[in-house]
Amino acid sequence: MRKYFGLPLRLTSRLSSFTLFTSRTMSSKTSLKKGEFIGALDCGTTSTRFIIFDEYASIIAQHQLEFPQYYPHPGWHEHNPEEIIESVRACISGAVQNLESVGWDKESVKAIGITNQRETTVAWDRNTGKSLCPAIVWDDGRTKGTVAHYLSKLGSEGIRLPDGEVKKGKEGHNLIKSISGLPISTYFSAIKLRWMMHHHPPVQEAYDNDTLLFGTVDSWICYHLLGSAHLTDPSNASRTLLLDLEKLEWSKALLDFFDLKSSILPKLLSSSEVYGEMKDTELKGVKVAGIAGDQQAALVGNKCLTTGEAKCTYGTGAFLLFCTGNKVVRSTHGLLSTVAYRPGPNLPPVYALEGSIAVAGSAIKWLRDQMKMIESTSQINDLAASVEDTGGVYFVTAFSGLLAPYWDPTAAGLLIGLSSYTTPGHIARATLEANAFQTRAILESMHKDAKHETKANELKVDGGMTNGDVAMQILADNIGVDILRPEMRESTALGSALLAGSAVGLYGWDLSKPNTFARVNAAGNSTFESSINDDTRGERWRMWQRAIERAKGWDEDEAE
After folding, report:
1. Cα–Cα distance for residue pair 518/509, rounded to 1 Å
2. How far apart are CA 492 and CA 29, in angstroms?
3. Alpha helices for 226-353 (secondary structure H)
4. Measured between alpha carbons, how far is 499 from 455 in angstroms, rounded to an integer?
5. Confidence class of residue 24 from pLDDT cuts 50, 70 and 90?
6. 536: which residues sit within 8 A by CB, 6+ positions away?
7. Mind listing the pLDDT tens digit for each residue in 90-114?
8. Which pLDDT score, from 0 to 100, does residue 142 have?
């Protein structure tokens, strides 16, 4: 074999090819443009996405991946925490590659925000950084026995305040709601953690050895991206049943009641500040500067930053949040009090009232999959538009009871007002109206709780169900307020980006000055105004309330 400067010619040829490839790659890298962008990591229930925005909320690049869902028993829903982290790293990498493919240098990303599915609970070991059991997802229902245990404890032992006073039974439950804004329920993280400790020996063992770390998905992600930083923000902490809403600190009374020690808890920081720099991934060294739970992030992303502004996210279910400013409003009408966000260290938090609708988009899927009335969910709008009204049909979509503000687990689904005149179009329209009526019920409860100090005159919306103009017009008609739909509807991701951008002073954004976001996601927005009079709207509402009363209390087995 011939040699060239002492090296085999074949190897020299390979080295030359590699050098040529490397020089071309380096040349293409150096030719990339540099800008100023903000990243958003959105870790939802079924998928993770990473989106890179510019100052107008135009999407420059993105990448999304689904991760596995586990349903080991009826009513159970689990995630593998390690698979969540894998999806996070892969999405960041994929988005960066897409950013570079459109000509931008990854150094253009100046900071990122994180938003996440709320309440989903992770337990891991502080020494190994590994999860100790599967994560229990927010909608998992296995913890009914745990809920019953603590309700019984309220009756027998009660909850003890720091001054030694004990509240039992209903008084005790009201005290817990007063401190945390939440009832004892399967949804919230403290209950899920107690179940883990009882049923997964490694979790209890780590607790006993003081190596247990507990957190929601934001805490788990930050721990891995920031190099073992154990932290959270108030919007996520307010969904654990352990946070004192007004003091914005972990409640000793609640920790003692749930038999938990404070050493397992993440450090409580604001929703908008620099938490640290990423230790790896394609964006190593980039600041993580914003955190919020998904629904609170959507409130920010819809720019509902002023008292009285409201947003509703319409997906499988629907989540309506109403900004109450720096004041905790205690609901007496079936809503939850929650932290919306804290705009920075040492700044007062912003609070919200929240109401949830169990069935929104899933009712449309029911028409498609079970009733075979439509072939795709988008067809619901055309079918509903084929008739002028519902022909007297009302559809209470209580497939698994009713949530806010009715809170009746014994309610059942009800189609009423059927006649020989009824067509699939009437049922389709009644399905969309059901969504509107339940939204109105929550909004009216919010106005009552706020004592009419701040009444929303418009509702900002996002989510897959908002794509249909007919659905949005029906919403405007039956609520009686303007419906504002943005062109770019990734409001959850955008909210975390706004929190992060504000923390690092990007684009002049400032959460305390809503006008600094005036140009954000402002192009191409649509407004839907009511096209019916008050009398027609009032009569439809009266009939809906009649239908609701007939649907309540139907499931006798559940009532027992």
Report:
1. 10
2. 31
3. 234-237, 252-257, 294-301
4. 25
5. very low
6. none
7. 999 999 999 999 999 999 999 999 9
8. 86
Q: How far apart are the first and last CA of the chain?
A: 89
110, two tokens: 């100046």
- The strand pairing partners of 213, in sequence order, are 124
**CA dihedral in degrees (318, 483, 445, 310; nearest 10)?**
80
Across the chain, mean pLDDT equals 90
Letter for the amino acid at 142?
A: R
Alpha carbons within 13 A on the beta-carbon side of 105: 15
Kindly report each contact of residues 274-281 with a partner whose C-beta sits within 8 Å and lies 24 or more positions away, as own/partner. 274/111, 274/503, 274/504, 275/222, 275/226, 275/229, 275/231, 276/222, 276/226, 276/227, 276/229, 277/226, 278/112, 278/225, 278/226, 279/225, 279/226, 279/227, 280/89, 280/225, 281/89, 281/92, 281/93, 281/225
Instruction: List all residues 6 or more positions away from 365 whose beta carbon is below 8 Å from its beta carbon.
Output: 316, 377
Distance, in Å, from the CA atom of 515 to the CA atom of 386, rounded to the nearest integer, reads 42
For tokens 């780590």, name the residue: 206
The angle that helices 144-156 and 189-199 make with each other, rounded to 10 degrees, is 100
Please check whether residue 147 is in contact with residue 185, taking contact to mean a CB–CB distance below 8 angstroms: yes
Task: Please state, in angstroms and rounded to a whole number, the distance separating the CA atoms of residues 401 and 396.
Answer: 10
The encoded tokens of residue 257 equal: 């009641």
Mean pLDDT of the 214-220 span: 97
Q: Give the C-alpha separation, 197 to 204, whole Å.
A: 5
Residue 514 DSSP label: G
pTM of the model: 0.88
Task: Express each pLDDT in 304-347 by its tens digit.
Answer: 999 989 999 998 889 999 999 998 998 888 899 999 999 999 89
Going from the C-alpha of 416 to that of each of 424, 541, 547, the distances in angstroms are 14, 14, 7
CB 239 within 8 A of CB 231: no
449, 359 Cβ separation under 8 angstroms: no
Q: Is the pLDDT of residue 139 over 70?
A: yes
Q: Residue 342 pairs with which residues in a beta bridge?
A: none
Q: What are phi and psi of 305, to 5 degrees?
A: -105, 0
H-assigned helices in 317-423: 361-369, 379-385
| CA distances (Å), origin 366, targets 168, 318, 418, 436 | 43, 16, 18, 17
- Tell me: the pLDDT tens digits for 173-215? 999 999 999 988 888 999 999 999 999 999 999 999 999 999 9
**Do 92 and 41 form a contact (C-beta atoms < 8 A)?**
yes
Binned at pLDDT 50, 70 and 90, residue 9 comes out as: very low
Q: What is the mean pLDDT of residues 541-556?
A: 92
